[in-house]
Amino acid sequence: MKLSKLIIITISIFLFSCEFDEDKDCLANTLDTHSLEEIYNCADTRHNTQIDLSDNYIIIRSQSQFNNLVTGDCLPQINFSTYDLVIGKKGLTSGNETINYNYYYDCSLGNLVLEVEFIQNIASVAPNLTYHALIPKLGDEETVAVEISVI
Q: pTM of this prediction?
């Protein structure tokens, strides 16, 4: 009898001393993105592609929407049955070296996130750059949060 009580107490202490951290089980799932440069051979869309936005972004889901909103040197026929286009503008206070993208599903928040990282240089040019990512086709109600960082 004493042995069974001891076993029950030991198991209870073990179970109640464990902390369950849901965040440890919730890993960000990185997803693929592509660019107009990569898929459609466009040249430097940061400067050569324009959309009437100011420090904001939009998700373009069709060719007609793309044709109505985007101007520039490269206006391809995008495969919108495969991709959606996240496109935006960002005003900067110095020159830009490159833009890095990280697209993932944040399971702790339950949404898709596109991180856009502007890598800057010391040039005194203050560009208003276009950023974009071709992402896998979203569902009708799905959206993407864009998080901007300037380094």
A: 0.80
